[in-house]
């Protein structure tokens, strides 16, 4: 096993979807993985799949927008799995609405989870990375960062994460820490299924419509995104930092 394989990773929002697929992919590559979500019990299935395949995983419950909970979660991971040197900031929520109908609470919730959450998690973990002389931060942006009707809050948060990523690359590079962002397009998850429901169409119809507009003629899977994240988290990606990779089945403007 390589030294990379013995590293400890934290994946936020890892109870399901892209986060769960990422946690499982990193575990398959030998990482011990802290599966972090708002409710630790919701992480049980992800942890069970990892341990069932011979990996090491720990379910951790924390609200990433809460400073004290983040500090406690990172301390627990360091104590029980080892110092974390890979961080995937995936936790996120949707509160879609047109601007004139969007409440201040819905704006704040999305910005708090995506942006404040990534900030708090990265700040808490970076000291372990700096001490180790190695670190990988991967932030989940989105094609919505380019603008998307009904998602002023989400688009702003995901665009903000790109700026956050590039700034981390400048600040942490000299310590052996890279920071990159993965920006998925249409990925089939519970979140996109909920979007279809709000639109009043079936998820199958929603996916068919989405695939028709994608050059590769299909929608993405959580595993597609996990593969991109795994590259950025790898030792081989040490000369790649401050980048935004769109995983969207084709070029985006």
Question: What letter string, H or E per element, gives the SSE order?
Answer: EHEHEHEHEHEHHHE
Q: Strand order across the biggest sheet? A: 3-2-1-4-5-6-7
How many helical stretches?
8
N- and C-termini, Cα separation: 41 Å
* CATH class designation: Alpha Beta
CATH topology: Rossmann fold
- Give the C-alpha Rg: 17 Å
What can you see in these coordinates?
The longest helix is centred in the middle third of the chain and has 29 residues, at 104-132. The chain has a 7-stranded parallel beta sheet, sandwiched between helices. The termini are far apart. The protein is an alpha/beta fold. 46% of the residues lie in helices and 16% in strands.
């Amino acid at each position: 096993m390589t030294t990379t394989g013995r590293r400890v990773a934290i994946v936020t929002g890892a109870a399901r979807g892209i986060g769960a697929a990422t946690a499982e992919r990193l575990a398959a590559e030998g990482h011990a993985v802290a599966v972090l979500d708002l409710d630790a019990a919701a992480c049980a299935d992800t942890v069970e799949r990892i341990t069932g395949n011979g990996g090491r995983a720990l379910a951790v419950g924390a609200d990433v927008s809460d400073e004290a909970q983040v500090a406690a979660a990172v301390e627990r991971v360091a104590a029980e799995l080892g110092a974390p040197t890979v961080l995937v900031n995936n936790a996120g929520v949707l509160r879609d609405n047109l601007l004139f109908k969007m409440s201040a609470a819905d704006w704040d919730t999305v910005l708090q989870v995506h942006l404040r959450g990534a900030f708090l998690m990265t700040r808490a973990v970076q000291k372990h990375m700096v001490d180790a002389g190695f670190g990988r931060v991967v932030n989940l942006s989105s094609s919505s960062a380019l603008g998307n009707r009904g998602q002023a809050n989400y688009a702003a948060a995901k665009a903000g994460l790109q700026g956050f990523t590039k700034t981390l690359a400048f600040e942490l590079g000299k310590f052996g820490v890279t920071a990159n962002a993965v920006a998925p397009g249409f990925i089939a998850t519970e979140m996109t299924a909920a979007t279809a429901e709000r639109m009043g169409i079936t998820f199958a119809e929603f996916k068919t419509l989405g695939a028709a507009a994608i050059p590769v003629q299909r929608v993405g899977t959580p595993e597609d995104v996990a593969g991109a994240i795994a590259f950025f988290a790898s030792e081989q990606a040490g000369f790649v930092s401050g980048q935004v990779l769109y995983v969207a089945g084709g070029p985006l403007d």
